Amino acid sequence: MASGEEDGTVDEKETNNKKKRTKGAIATAWLAFYNIAMTAGWLVLAVSMIRYYLQRGTHKGLYKTIAKTLKFFQTFALLEVGHCAIGIVRTSVIVTGVQVCSRIFLVWFITNSIRQIQNEESVILFVVVWTITEITRYSFYTFNLLHHLPYFIKWARYNMFIVMYPLGVIGELLTIHAALPYVRRSGMFSLRLPNKYNVSFDYYYFLIIVMLSYIPLFPQLYFHMLRQRRRVLHGEVIVEKDE
Ligand SMILES: CCCCCCCCCCCCC[C@@H](O)CC(=O)SCCNC(=O)CCNC(=O)[C@H](O)C(C)(C)COP(=O)(O)OP(=O)(O)OC[C@H]1O[C@@H](n2cnc3c(N)ncnc32)[C@H](O)[C@@H]1OP(=O)(O)O
Q1: pLDDT for 101-156, tens place per residue?
Q2: 161 CB near ligand 1 (under 6 Å)
Q3: Whole-model pTM?
Q4: What is the residue with the minimal CA distance to atom 20 of ligand 1?
Q5: Distance from residue 116's CA to the centre of ligand 1 (Å)
Q6: Alpha-carbon dihedral of residues 8, 14, 19, 25, nearest 10 degrees?
Q7: Pick the catalytic residue: 80, 120, 134, 172?
């Protein structure tokens, strides 16, 4: 009897281990597919931008030609929040959520919605910075999953952000700033009283709040990456608070 129970426990453990291995293999296969697709997407974006600039010699009109690809791949990144939520990657849902949602907001509710700002240098600045960052980041994840990670990709992943993050933020903030006069004039996405819902919403002031929210939020993302850098490049053991 006792040995039967023991057998049962051994069987259960074996079944659980098998389930975990299958789940692990499916998650790894999905992540490999996801990361390869994202690397390819951002590479397509990079090639389109280089070709456009070489052919036309100007950044004017560039956003329009890359808009569909940018919107598609940046929106697809929402899946990353899901990856953290279901626990297939060891990253904070909040950190990833802030990063991904702020970008999706910028792409859809600012750059895509206000045609007049699409030729601003700041738009090109953040698009170029995101593109370089994402090609590096997704190739890092891909090679890491395949256990063949070239050191220069690891180095680039955990060093380039030191400069790229502030540059990206400058591009993003200047873009929102450039949008403000158009938003004020057009009253877009705003709700004035009186209306049947009896609520008012001013997108202009909302954008100012978004700009101000970079002050507390951006340092958290930046310090998170500095901690990741110390952990991965210098092997420091870092105890993160549950974010
Ligand atoms: C609705 C209105 C909202 C308004 C909000 C306004 C305020 C916003 C302020 C925010 C400012 C953001 C500005 C930003 O957009 C500017 C730029 O991005 S500029 C370009 C420079 N950017 C960067 O360098 C980005 C850096 N950020 C990131 O990399 C990530 O997004 C981040 C979530 C911040 C951090 O990444 P993570 O925590 O995942 O670190 P690691 O890469 O080291 O990964 C940890 C472990 O998880 C494994 N992992 C993660 N993802 C994957 C994956 N896809 N596939 C496989 N494995 C994955 C990774 O390998 C690590 O594993 P291990 O621990 O085993 O090493």
Answers
A1: 999 999 999 999 999 999 999 999 999 999 999 999 999 999 999 999 999 999 99
A2: yes
A3: 0.91
A4: 165
A5: 30
A6: 180
A7: 172
Q: How far apart are CA 231 and CA 129, in angstroms?
A: 24
3-state secondary structure of 201: strand
Active-site residue, selected from the candidate residues 165, 182, 214, 222: 165
Query: What number of H helices and E strands is found in the chain?
Result: 8, 0
pLDDT digits (tens, 9 = 90+) for 159-206: 999 999 999 999 999 999 999 999 999 999 999 999 988 999 999 999
**Residue 52 a catalytic site member:** no
| Ligand 1 centroid to residue 222 C-alpha, Å | 10
152 CA distance to ligand 1 middle (Å): 19
Pocket test for ligand 1, best of 84, 89, 142 (most atoms within 8 A of CB): 89
Tokens 């403000």 appear where? 180
What is the three-class DSSP state of 171?
helix
Counted residue by residue, the chain has a size of: 243
ipTM > 0.90 for the complex: yes
Q: Is 162 in the pocket of ligand 1 (CB under 6 A)?
A: no
Burial class (CB in 10 A: 0-12, 13-18, 19+), 200: exposed
Alpha-carbon separation of residue 217 from 19, 60, 220 (angstroms): 39, 31, 5
